[in-house]
């Protein structure tokens, strides 16, 4: 049984990926500093899978402790690296917070594995494309100047990984460029759990619907899109989690033609902010209040991905639609509210 390190494994995407790893027969060890997640998630994962993952509270920006942890776990064969700050708007306001955390954690982790063979799956983002010239955007599209410090950390991290993999035969790296993960596990035991005011659309929708927040603000209705609101490729978090299993299996099977590969992970379809709001209302029967606000700094107008490469090379394809995403996100919000999570 392969032992996989999941950094940021109590977070939103990390926790869902831990569930899929355990369900696929992997042994999992989680490292998280709990900066933007809850230790309670370990018990939730255990309820779903029947297996409590090993856990180490650790800030990967602490180089000595990171080196010590990896040295003490010589049986780790793969890493899925989620541990990073990820809010576009916050990164514009606090760029140094993002550069420090997102770079130091990655570099310390790669340094700790020096001399050891490792399969490394990186949590990247479609933000590396900026506003693409052509849609749907493919993996061969040019990486433009980032619209935010967050996007810039993903661009530079991919360069670091590319150069490290090419300089060292022990690293096999796959970078998954996510589009917009939303939704929750079908059990409603794990989902997106933002600390403070949500930075992302769907948790703000569910918190507004349940009465924790006021009306939703749609940031701009004058974009060049069908209804004027921003368009994104939303992907169910469970589909996204399964893409990481597919990437690991590709690495383990020795199918990588290069030391560093990139895959778009999305549905291949764009949905506007207003369409997502309508999908929530339709799938849950809950009416939402929203208002139109000014454009938000750092946002791009529209993006969705060409995901044919992932379908062909990884044998992976998203299966769940926007209404599935909204329905599961609402079930999770109701669970949180009922259980005072």
Automatic annotation (TrEMBL):
Molecular function via GO: UDP-glucose 4-epimerase activity
Cofactor: NAD(+)
EC code(s) of this entry: 5.1.3.2
Short name of one Pfam family: GDP_Man_Dehyd
Full protein name: UDP-glucose 4-epimerase
Lineage: Bacteria, Pseudomonadati, Bacteroidota, Sphingobacteriia, Sphingobacteriales
Oligomer status and interactors: Homodimer.
Keyword Kinase: no
Residue span(s) of domain NAD(P)-binding: 5-327
Claim: NAD is one of the keywords in the record: yes
Catalytic reaction list: UDP-alpha-D-glucose = UDP-alpha-D-galactose
């Amino acid at each position: 049984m392969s032992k996989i390190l999941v950094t940021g494994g109590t977070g939103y995407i990390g926790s869902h990926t831990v569930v899929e790893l355990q369900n696929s027969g992997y042994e999992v060890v989680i490292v998280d500093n709990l900066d933007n997640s809850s230790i309670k998630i370990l018990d939730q994962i255990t309820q779903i899978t029947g297996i409590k993952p090993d856990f180490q509270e650790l800030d990967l920006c602490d180089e000595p402790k990171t080196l010590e942890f990896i040295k003490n776990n010589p049986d780790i064969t793969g890493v899925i690296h989620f541990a990073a700050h990820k809010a576009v708007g916050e990164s514009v306001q606090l760029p140094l917070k993002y550069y420090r955390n997102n770079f130091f954690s990655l570099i310390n982790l790669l340094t700790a594995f020096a001399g050891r063979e490792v399969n490394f799956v990186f949590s990247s983002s479609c933000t590396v494309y900026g506003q693409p010239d052509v849609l749907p955007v493919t993996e061969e599209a040019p990486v433009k100047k980032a619209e935010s410090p967050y996007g810039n950390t993903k661009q530079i991290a991919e360069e670091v990984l590319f150069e490290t993999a090419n300089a060292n035969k022990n690293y096999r790296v796959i970078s998954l460029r996510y589009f917009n993960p939303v939704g929750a596990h079908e059990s409603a035991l794990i989902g997106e759990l933002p600390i403070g005011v949500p930075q992302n659309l769907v948790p703000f929708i569910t918190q507004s619907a349940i009465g924790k927040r006021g009306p939703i603000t749609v940031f701009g209705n004058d974009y060049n899109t069908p209804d004027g609101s921003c368009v994104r490729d939303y992907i169910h978090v469970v589909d996204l989690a399964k893409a990481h299993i597919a990437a690991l299996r590709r690495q383990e099977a020795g199918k990588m033609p290069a030391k560093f590969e990139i895959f778009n992970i999305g549905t291949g379809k764009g949905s506007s902010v207003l369409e997502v709001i309508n999908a929530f209302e339709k799938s849950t029967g809950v009416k939402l209040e929203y208002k139109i606000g000014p454009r938000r700094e750092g946002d791009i107008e529209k993006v969705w991905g060409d995901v044919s490469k992932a379908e062909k090379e990884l044998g992976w394809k998203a299966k769940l639609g926007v209404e599935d995403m909204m329905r599961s996100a609402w079930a999770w919000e109701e669970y949180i509210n009922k259980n005072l999570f």
